[in-house]
Amino acid sequence: MSGEISRQAFVRRALGGLAGAALLGSCRSVTPKAVSTPAPPDWNALGSQLDGQLTMPSSAGYAAAKGVFNSRFAGSTPTAIITAASVTDVQKAVAFAATNHIGISARSGGHSYIGASALDATLVIDLRRLPGGIDLDAGRNLVTVPPATDLDSVQTQLAASGRSIPSGSCPTVGVAGLTLGGGLGSDARRCGLTCDALVSASLVLPTGAVVTASANDHDDLFWALRGGGGGNFGVVTSLTFRTFPATDRDVVTMTFPMESAAAVIVSWLSWLSIADRDIWGMVNITVGDGPGRCTVILATPPGTGSSVAGEMLAAAGLSASSTRTRTLNRIDFVHYFEGGDAARVPRAFVAGSDIVGEMTSAAADSIVAAVSAWPQSAGSATAVVESLSGAVDDIDPAGSAFPWRRQAAAVQWYTEGPSDAATSWLTAAHYTLGSASVGGYINYPETGDPLARYLGPNLQRFITIRQKYDPTGLIRSGIGAA
Ligand SMILES: Cc1cc2nc3c(=O)[nH]c(=O)nc-3n(C[C@H](O)[C@H](O)[C@H](O)COP(=O)(O)OP(=O)(O)OC[C@H]3O[C@@H](n4cnc5c(N)ncnc54)[C@H](O)[C@@H]3O)c2cc1C
């Protein structure tokens, strides 16, 4: 492909020379300069230098090697895939891509909503075989992990040592992608986002240099890596997190009639935003496949679930159709939100997000109206509302690239229904929310959206840092103009 571009460039340059000669007429003779065509990428040479593996489109394993979690992107056509087995492999791959002007898709867990870890015409650097393992420094309560470690493995190993990091909900999501985009989950109100626990990250820059970004070293990069989204600046090869003690938690599940869904969202969120930060919650509204369901899930200190739920209902003036409370140890708590083995299976889905600045009644009405617009015969669709209060709010919005620390809630739209209906539903949802939405969450990105929608007021600083570390745009994120 780059050979093709070079040939076109050569032809353009040659035609330009001829046109110039014609304009000069016969006044003087012109000797055309020799123009050399860059050599095509030498894939064989690269492959022979790797500890890991090179997979080309002609290789038998190409389809499997480029496979990502969202099978809507199964037809993507990366130029090649390098399965890196060492940081040196990553450096070689980055140098090769830079020399040959091929963009890079870094691949950790492969759970990008928009298939951004196997973009067309890029060199995929797959990090799943990087060595290292999950390394807990019990003395300093730090854990260091390779980027593609799946979240469930991190949580399982940490829980065995009585520690944890702020979790997301998917067992197989890669810790790198989750962290680089923020990391929103059931620990957010007491421990913040996953990226808030990041202490340092090592990465291979487009120059091939390996650097470690932390609060004391490359602090601009460290700022940008915490919530600016994956696929920027370089390829992250390891991440170190602060851990917190793993504790039991109560989980309370309450269901409400669909008619009261908007009231539930407003009153639950206003109660939660000033509740003790040991309490976390989300509202899940699902339509299709039967009557609509509105569910509130709370996580509370062990033994307090029933009383906290009672407080919430009293404060909100609500009564639940059903309530279930159980006490879970740390790993069962993580597994509860992961959703079991079925959650590990790749599938086709359409999803996106809105950030709600203030949860007014009108904003809640619009969330319910938007999710309810899903065509009932097309399967099910869900809106998940999560609070951005508590520890998320402890960091200044300009203190890391993740900008949404003073807003009320993140809303995720998700469906595995037919693609056309799903895309129309999602577009209509944004329209229905209108000015109640101030942006989107970069870990739930949508194809074609501008980066500004995800980085809000932090966009300019992010772009300046990206320009400094990756001026040619070698590392691709699939978001915005890349
Ligand atoms: C089922 C499911 C559940 C989810 N639940 C949550 C949740 O609870 N909370 C939440 O916050 N998010 C959640 N997400 C979103 C998830 O955090 C993002 O999709 C995340 O980017 C996935 O990371 P990954 O490493 O698995 O994906 P990948 O597709 O490998 O990577 C995602 C992006 O990061 C880039 N990238 C990956 N690795 C690196 C690296 N080492 N260096 C530089 N760039 C890199 C990729 O190029 C791509 O642009 C969920 C996603 C799914 C599919």
UniProtKB/TrEMBL annotation:
Cofactor requirements of the protein: FAD
PANTHER family in the cross-refs: BINDING OXIDOREDUCTASE, PUTATIVE (AFU_ORTHOLOGUE AFUA_1G17690)-RELATED, FAD-BINDING PCMH-TYPE DOMAIN-CONTAINING PROTEIN
Gene3D superfamilies: 3.30.465.10, 3.40.462.20, Uridine Diphospho-n-acetylenolpyruvylglucosamine Reductase, domain 2
Organism, scientific name: Mycolicibacterium sphagni
Similarity section: Belongs to the oxygen-dependent FAD-linked oxidoreductase family.
Protein name in the entry: FAD-binding oxidoreductase
Family annotation (PROSITE patterns): FAD_PCMH (PS51387), OX2_COVAL_FAD (PS00862), PROKAR_LIPOPROTEIN (PS51257)
Keyword presence, Oxidoreductase: yes
Superkingdom assignment: Bacteria
Signal peptide, first to last residue: none
InterPro entries per UniProt: FAD-bd_PCMH, FAD-bd_PCMH-like_sf, FAD-bd_PCMH_sub1, FAD-bd_PCMH_sub2, FAD-linked_Oxidoreductase, Oxid_FAD_bind_N, Oxy_OxRdtase_FAD_BS
Residues of the FAD-binding PCMH-type domain: 74-246
Keyword terms, alphabetized: FAD, Flavoprotein, Oxidoreductase
DNA damage keyword on record: no
